[in-house]
Automatic annotation (TrEMBL):
GO terms for biological process: RNA modification. This is DYW domain-containing protein. Residues 550-642 form the DYW domain. Belongs to the PPR family. PCMP-H subfamily. It comes from Oryza glumipatula. InterPro entries: DYW_dom, E_motif, PPR_At4g14850-like_plant, PPR_rpt, TPR-like_helical_dom_sf. Transmembrane segments: none annotated. PPR repeats lie at residues 137-172, 205-235, 236-270, 304-334, 335-369. One of its GO terms (molecular function) is RNA binding. NCBIfam families: PPR. GO terms for cellular component: mitochondrion.
DNA sequence: TTAGGGTTAG
């Protein structure tokens, strides 16, 4: 008998040989059955396979296993097993899957099994078992609430179950609250939940606090998160990581880095999670200084792929392709994210041809591309005007890589066709695609209409956006700018008036530049900077230098009905020109001037930056919300196509 | 027996 020999083997291994033999041969009703003894030992110490192999023998002998042993087995299974092992345990424990008549009726075991299913992602099995349980305690409820809260698209179900739990008279504990907080769907629900937590006195629990911080941050409520954080007496690494991640994800890079510094002052050692968030925070900064410092910390985690991907992205987003290239070249491992990051990074920095070369390399030696890789590839095509390549990749991605085109890919195609001036093709594409066009698609078309000065189509696209999103300010601004481009001042004024009536304000152009540890912000037309006088002098100097190289003000970029002279004045003080002048005044030898912008760069500033890079022999890098412009020796990396 | 944080695009 295979089972008997296995049993001898197990007992021989886990107990003195003489005793194990005696156990097997002389089992009596006053001592535990040897099968049960062996089973318990295997459940406690493994191996899992041997413990599982004993389950049929237990059933055959009509024995009921010790709930503690079964619970341990389930834990072992979660660690080393597969979902099918979980189902096997379930069958044996509950006699053929009949939940109503379990052979091992412990609540303890049922809870463990529900948890096992949840951990293996078998939500339906977990819920079925939970529903059939005659008795449920706070652990049973918490396990399913947590499982639903963590599952995609099941947050509402988690909340419903939480309410059912309260109705059932079961009081939630800190485990329950730390799970359900992630499922709060609106700030109001979150506030109510926070209130309940305080009321039952569970707000001092560090797990509950970190979930609270995370929940506030997910709604973009940095102050709310910060308050919860500041009130804490004892903090652990995860709490620090939560708050830093929250700030980084909300786009407050400076805030995230300040917190990181405070964490170091509090003598907490960072881990990979901290550094990943800090790197993300650095992607929103102008300079590379902090990013490089973090790079030094990353060196000790040389096998951490996630961290290296974050580092790669940081270099791309800070416009330092040299560092990104070098890092990508020496990364010991590269996954689909590394490749996608590199492709998108190159594309955003105006190096589309190289991006497509990296994609070719990926096809031959890298992992299989995913839908995000393809977004990067199509972005590369659209920003370089490679219409044919874009069409090829779009139409063959399903056949070549099994990736069905999604909304994002369609949007890239509208961008590709629109930018290239093929507006009719773009409209045809929108009407023929497999999705109902959304406001994103129409906005892309509207941007292209403005670029190619097609007011009729712009009005059509803007109307579609406003039909879908009546409060969209961007659509009204773009529409009025299009009228202004066409010198249709009456229409532009009508559109502006509508915005004024609705209280919509145009976001002024802002550029910022970092000097030392200070960030200097320049707003279009605003000369309140303490160095304004010298900035104006420097601008005059630059204007005379670039005029010698052929610069003339391109007044068509002024979107107001003014005299030429006034238009030139407005152009002169665009925020990026102020920042460029400030940059050349304070430039360091051999270092590029890095500027960030809140709006897309205008054509006149673009021409100005190109010529300044030539006349001053400086590299100027301007990052706008969509892409980078690297100006060097009179040329821009975007090849004047943006 | 139940709980909290980190990467890629737009």
């Amino acid at each position: 008998m295979a089972a008997a020999s296995l049993l001898c083997h197990v007992i021989a291994r886990s107990a003195p040989a003489g005793r194990s033999r005696r156990c097997l041969l002389h089992s009596n009703p006053h001592t535990a059955h040897p099968l049960l003894v062996a089973f318990s030992r295997l459940c406690a110490h493994g191996p899992l396979r041997d413990a599982l192999a004993l389950l049929p023998d237990l059933a055959e002998a009509g024995l009921t296993a010790d709930p503690v042993a079964v619970s341990r087995l389930i834990k072992l299974c979660v660690r080393h097993g597969t979902p099918s092992d979980g189902r096997l345990i379930h069958r044996h424990v509950f006699g053929g899957g009949d939940v109503a008549a379990p052979s091992c009726s412990s609540l303890f075991v049922s809870n463990s099994l529900v948890s096992l299913y949840a951990k293996f992602g078998l939500l339906d099995d977990a819920l079925r078992l939970f529903d059939g349980m005659p008795h449920k305690n706070v652990v049973s409820w918490t396990t399913v609430v947590a499982a639903l809260a963590n599952a995609r698209g099941r947050k509402e179900d988690a909340l419903r179950l939480f309410v059912a739990m309260l109705r059932d008279g079961v009081a939630p504990n800190m485990y329950t609250f730390s799970s359900i907080l992630g499922a709060c769907s609106t700030p109001r629900v979150l506030a109510a939940m926070h209130g309940s937590i305080v009321k039952v006195g569970l707000d001092s629990d560090v797990f509950v606090r970190s979930s609270l911080i995370d929940a506030y941050m997910k709604f973009g409520d940095l102050d709310g998160g910060r308050r919860v954080f500041d009130e804490m007496v004892t903090r652990d690494l995860i709490v620090w990581n939560s708050i830093i991640a929250g700030f980084a994800q909300s786009g407050d890079g400076v805030g995230a880095i300040e917190l990181f510094m405070r964490m170091k002052e509090a003598r907490f050692l960072s881990n990979q999670g901290t550094l990943t968030s800090v790197l993300r925070a650095c992607t929103g900064l102008v300079t590379l200084e902090v990013g490089r410092q973090v790079h030094a910390h990353v060196l000790k985690y040389d096998k951490d792929l996630i961290l290296h991907n974050a580092l790669l992205d940081m270099y791309c987003k800070c416009g330092s392709l040299q560092d990104a290239d070098a890092l990508f070249g020496r990364m010991p491992q590269r996954d689909v994210i590394s490749w996608s990051t590199m492709i998108s990074g190159l594309a955003q920095n105006g190096r589309s041809i190289e991006a497509l070369k990296v994609f070719d390399m990926m096809k031959s030696e890298g992992p299989r591309p995913n839908h995000i890789t393809m977004v990067g590839v199509l972005f590369a095509c659209s920003h370089a005007g490679l219409v044919e390549d874009g069409w090829y990749y779009f139409s063959s991605m399903e056949k070549l890589f099994g990736i069905q085109p999604e909304r994002e890919h369609c949007n890239c195609m509208v961008d590709l066709l629109g930018r290239a001036g093929k507006l009719d093709d773009a409209v045809k594409f929108i009407h023929e695609m497999n999705f109902q066009p959304d406001s994103v698609i129409w906005r892309t078309l509207l941007g292209a209409c403005r670029m190619h000065k097609n007011a009729d189509l712009a009005a059509y696209a803007a109307k579609e956006i406003l039909r879908l999103e009546p409060d969209d300010q961007g659509a009204r601004i773009l529409l009025s700018n299009t009228y202004a481009d066409l010198r249709q001042w009456a229409d532009a004024e009508k559109s502006w008036k509508m915005m004024r009536d609705r209280g919509v304000k145009k976001d002024p152009g802002r550029s910022w530049i970092e000097l030392g540890k200070q960030v200097h912000v320049f707003i279009a037309g605003d000369l309140s900077h303490p160095c304004s006088e010298s900035i104006i002098q420097e601008l005059s100097r630059l204007f005379s230098r670039v005029t010698n190289l052929g610069y003339t003000p391109q007044t068509e970029f002024v979107l107001q009905d003014l005299a030429t002279e006034q238009k030139e004045d407005l152009l002169k003080y665009h925020s990026e020109k102020l920042a460029i002048a400030f940059g050349t005044m304070n430039a360091m030898e051999g270092k590029p001037i890095r500027i960030m912008k809140n709006l897309r760069i205008c054509g006149d500033c673009h021409a100005f930056a190109k010529l300044v890079s030539k006349s001053e022999g400086k590299v100027i890098i301007i990052r706008d919300p969509v892409r980078f412009h690297h100006f060097q020796d009179g040329v821009c990396s975007c090849n004047d196509y943006w």
